[in-house]
Amino acid sequence: MAETKKSPAKKSAQKKTAAKKPAVKKTTTAKKTTAQKSAAKTKTAAAKKTAVKKPTAKKPTVKKTTGAATKSVAQKTTAKKLAAQKASVKAAPKKTAQTGTIDFVAEMFKRAKEYQKRLVLPEGTEERTVQAAAKIMSKKLAKEVILIGNPTDIQKVAAAKKVSLNGITIVQPATYPFIDDYAQTYFELREGKINKATNQPEVADTAAAKEFLIKDAISFGAMMVRKGHADALVSGALAATADMLRAGLKVIGTESKTASSCFVVDTHNPKWGHKGLMIFSDCAVVPAPTEDELADIAIAAGKSCTALLGASPVVALLSFSTKGSAQHETVSTVQNALAKVKEKAPELIIDGELQADAALIPEVTDKKAAGSPIRGKVNTIVFPNLAAGNIGYKLVQRLAGADAYGPVLQGFKKPLSDLSRGCSVEDIIVTAAITLVQAGSTD
Predict the structure, then answer these.
(1) CA–CA distance, 62 with 78 (Å, rounded to integer)
(2) DSSP character at residue 174
(3) Confidence check: pLDDT of 49 > 70
(4) 3-state SS class at 408
(5) CA–CA separation, 222 and 244 (whole Å)
(6) What is the pLDDT of residues 349-370, one digit of tens each?
(7) 340: Cβ–Cβ under 8 A, 6 or more apart, which residues?
(8) CA distance 178 to 12
(9) Which of 15-24, 268-277, 292-301, 322-331 has the lowest mean pLDDT?
(10) What is the pLDDT of residues 295-343, one digit of tens each?
């Protein structure tokens, strides 16, 4: 498009007008019509007002977000939104917390400090574990923290991460004073067991048992717990869950025949469970429990409720059926499990089989399971299988904004906990506190 030529006088006037507007930068080189000049005057007035307000508009949060000295309106708006989003994330716990709820982590820290139990961490050369050990000691969550491994290697990790090992016990299995006693006990526990892969004895003699315990830090740590040289074990930052369960089953043993797990679900709402806290089980170990296993899981979940929530358990056995409303073999499994629980633990307040709404909503309970002893009091939920449990806790966690802590292993004679291999230092600390509380609550 052809430009309209203007006289030098007009150009001079334009330059003067531009000089009066330092607050608004122009990038266009196009000449202005009379109407554009009028609009420019209006913008000049607005720019002057903005210039007066500038001192109050300078916000450090905006500068930190954009990193630019001069910002457009769009950039400032984006920066404000980002700052607001960060603030909302930090404030989330305060928004969700309600009167009558419990800060679960704070409660675990408090009780762990009171119990003062001894913790063993088999993965002693793993850097997150070393950092967590130092913080557990500094927070005084345990009477003693034991790291298993070569002292030189552990010290190198500590130096690299700039953490103090003051007060931490380092145990090297090969030179441990009780290693021969441990080897004898392990041989007795595994004597006659055949390794399916080799078809040879799993442990031929005490020498083989000793060699195994020196190499397998988790089994060695489990033996420390079995022998009373530690009260609780936490591992899994490097090892697989199967390794953890294997050591627990072989060395520590179970109270019944079933090892399982639970999650502590913090709903942040006093309407649910015990002051907003609930036990969900089993969500991580037994894929398709039999009626006997389901009964064991229910009893173990009840004990977890007592130990971790500090409440008398009220247990609901869930199903897609309520009191025979549907016929299926999985429904029968839940019904039979209920009968076995009543035989094994008659003092436990429990009911089933119930659909979720019939278990949790009193009005629905009255319609579907009138007279149920758990009406309006459920704090422990037992799922019919692992699929339901794993899906269930994750749905509540994601859709309801709940926090889920676990999996916490249950059903063992002594407390031990498994970590995710993607765990953070803080995850290890919280898991350790929970496990130490389990140890203290069994005294």
Answers:
(1) 9
(2) G
(3) no
(4) strand
(5) 9
(6) 999 999 999 999 999 999 999 9
(7) 291, 292, 295
(8) 97
(9) 15-24
(10) 999 999 999 999 999 999 999 999 999 999 999 999 999 999 999 999 9
Question: Cα dist. 382→327, 356, 425 in Å?
Answer: 19, 10, 30
**Entry field: residues in the chain:** 443
Candidates 235, 202, 231; CA nearest to 218 is 235
Give yes or no for residue 122 having a pLDDT over 80: yes
Dist. CA 243–CA 219, nearest whole Å: 9
pLDDT band at 221 (very low <50, low <70, confident <90, very high): very high
Cis peptide before 55 (omega within 30 of 0): no
* Other beta carbons less than 10 A from residue 302's beta carbon: 26
100: its two tokens: 């009558």
Q: Which two tokens stand for residue 97?
A: 């917390």
Distance CA 66, CA 54 (A): 17
Which helix (H) or strand (E) segment is 153 a member of? helix 151-161
Mean pLDDT estimate for the chain? 84
| Residue among 312, 304, 353 at smallest CA distance from 296 | 304
User: 3-state DSSP call for residue 403?
Assistant: strand
In angstroms, the CA 24 to CA 51 distance is: 10
Considering the entire predicted model, what is its pTM? 0.76
Cα separation, 117 vs 111, in Å, equals 10
360 backbone dihedrals φ, ψ, rounded to 5°: -105, -30
Cα 196 from chain centroid? 35
Higher pLDDT, 177 or 20: 177
What tokens does 228 get? 């009373």
Q: Given the DSSP bridges, would you call strands 380-382 and 277-281 parallel, antiparallel or unpaired? A: parallel
What is the spatial distance between Cα 316 and Cα 309, in angstroms, rounded to a whole number? Answer: 16
Q: How many CB atoms lie within 10 A of CB 4?
A: 8
Half-sphere exposure of 275 (CA within 13 A, CB side): 13
Helix, strand, or coil (residue 234): strand
- How far apart (Å, rounded) are the C-alpha atoms in residues 163 and 137? 11
E-state strands within 87-231: 118-121, 144-148, 168-171, 194-195, 200-201
Q: What is the DSSP string of 63-83?
A: HHHH--SS--HHHHHHHHHHH
> What would the two tokens of residue 33 be?
């019509």
